[in-house]
Amino acid sequence: MGRHDWFRNTSWDVAIEAAFLQKLKRARDKSQYLRIQASTLASSHPDVALRLLDQYFELGDDFAHAQAHMDRAVAYRALGQINRVIEALEAALAREKVFPNQQTRARVELAMLIVIERKSELYARASELMKEGAPFLIFPRDVYEWNGAHALLLHELGQHRDAQQLARLALEAAEKTKSGFRHHPNVGLVTNTEDEFGRRVRRISGGLH
User: Fold this and answer.
1) Of 49, 81, 104, which one is at a domain's C-terminal end?
2) At CB < 8 A and 24+ separation, what contacts does 117-126 make?
3) 128: Cβ–Cβ under 8 A, 6 or more apart, which residues?
């Protein structure tokens, strides 16, 4: 790893932490380095990531707070703490309301999580998120996840015909092999529809209950 990547460590131990903290101590903008390092470790070393994010938030206000809450959500997901994932995503959405120029994927991530985990007590919240609309549907992956989550929700609510239509739109997006952006043709494509989410969307698209 190059000397300019000291805040993008993909592994973590006592020596790496000591070197990171030494660099951090001399850094002018500590916030961004803490958040980027936490984001890099969120899936593989969630406990470390959460500790770094605690330090990040202790530094005070920063433009990337919404994304930092998203990083927390990833770490909690890795730990299997679903309720805390939901809290982190809600915190990201609350931050976005205050700073609407700083948008994340929190809305679609929260809607997906609610329906994937079948959190029936939160279906009303998921419906609210869907009515608010997607902040962006730029790439095929966005269209797939948004329509797929909406399809799963409507299916759970007994609106099977509408759910089927949305599921088919989701799968159409999943089949795209180009993003539609000339300079980034392979960005934002759907790479896996064989997970539980994809299998449920496919069943709904065929009208299966």
Assistant:
1) 104
2) 117/82, 118/156, 119/86, 120/156, 122/86, 123/153, 123/156, 123/157, 126/153
3) none
22 and 96 fall within a common domain: yes
Residues 167 and 82 placed together within one structural domain of the fold:
no
99 and 115 belong to one structural domain: no
The rounded distance, in Å, linking the Cα atoms of 150 and 154 is: 6
pLDDT digits (tens, 9 = 90+) for 70-120: 999 999 999 999 999 999 999 999 999 999 888 899 999 999 999 999 999
pLDDT tens digits for 37-72? 999 999 999 999 999 999 999 999 889 999 999 999
Question: Is the full-model pTM beyond 0.85?
Answer: yes
Q: Which domain holds residue 160?
A: 107-209
